[in-house]
Write a structure and sequence with these properties.
Radius of gyration: 21 Å
Order of helices and strands: HHEHHHEHHHHH
Strand order of the largest sheet: 1-2
Length: 240
């Protein structure tokens, strides 16, 4: 039995190969996405075009357009490779789980992908237009909103990936619960502290108005409660 246990260096080697496989999948899909880069850029620029206060995107430096194309293709590559990345992450952590939990890899991949895409959709449809509306309206019509195209696409990518990662909270709860590092009692005990942290996070991430903060905080609070429920359902029998 002991011979089946991996040494620290063997764990590092496995982690290295898991990372290589995940990065290779991202690069492959990014190359494919580059073929459709014009349509992708139009899609990502649409929230700026739909604002009541006009926003103009302009290239400041010679390499800006190329960098925007690179960022956009990598973003789409990461989104497309999400199931593969999640699978590689699960394959790395699953040996630490009990035998009955190792067969839930497909569940983790499907649910993780679903929540990641849900976070991206929420960021694109709600958070991004809302934040652009706030920032573009600060000039009150006296200042032209001529944004650097590189800064805009970097901001869009950061916003979408942030909301996508935040929506992974239920999946993280499931994995940590199965590993034994998280319990429903722990989540319940720190619920009030987590609520305050979520409200602060929502206030930082959104424009300083109550509606925007509520639109951001409510889904996060719902995700936390869902994480509590998931932790209760999938808590190992030995810790009950």
């Amino acid at each position: 039995m002991a011979s089946d246990e991996m040494t620290f260096l063997e764990h590092l080697e496995e982690l290295r190969w898991r990372l290589i496989k995940g990065l290779a999948a991202i690069m492959l899909f990014a190359i494919i996405a580059y073929v459709f880069i014009d349509d992708i850029m139009i899609f990502l620029a649409r929230p700026a075009e739909m604002q009541q206060v006009p926003i103009t995107l302009q290239a400041i430096n010679v390499s800006d357009i190329f960098m925007v194309q690179l960022i956009s293709s990598l973003l789409v590559g990461l989104v497309a490779a999400t199931p593969i990345v999640l699978y590689q992450a699960w394959q790395f952590v699953s040996p630490a789980l009990a035998g009955s939990a190792r067969g839930t890899g497909l569940f983790v991949v499907l649910v993780g992908t679903f929540f990641f895409l849900g976070g991206l959709t929420f960021g694109y449809a709600v958070i991004l237009p809302m934040s652009l509306r706030f920032f573009s309206g600060l000039g009150d019509g006296t200042v032209a909103n001529n944004y650097s195209i590189l800064a805009y696409f970097s901001y869009v990518s950061w916003m979408l990936l942030s909301t996508g990662m935040v929506f992974q909270l239920p999946v993280i709860s499931f994995i940590l619960t199965r590993v034994g590092l998280l319990t429903p009692a722990f989540l319940k005990h720190y619920r009030k502290y987590s609520t305050v942290a979520i409200l602060i996070f929502a206030a930082v991430l959104t424009p300083p108005d109550p509606v925007s903060q509520v639109l951001m905080a409510v889904p996060l609070l719902g995700l936390y409660e869902l994480s509590v429920l998931i932790s209760r359902i999938f808590q190992p029998a030995s810790s009950l």
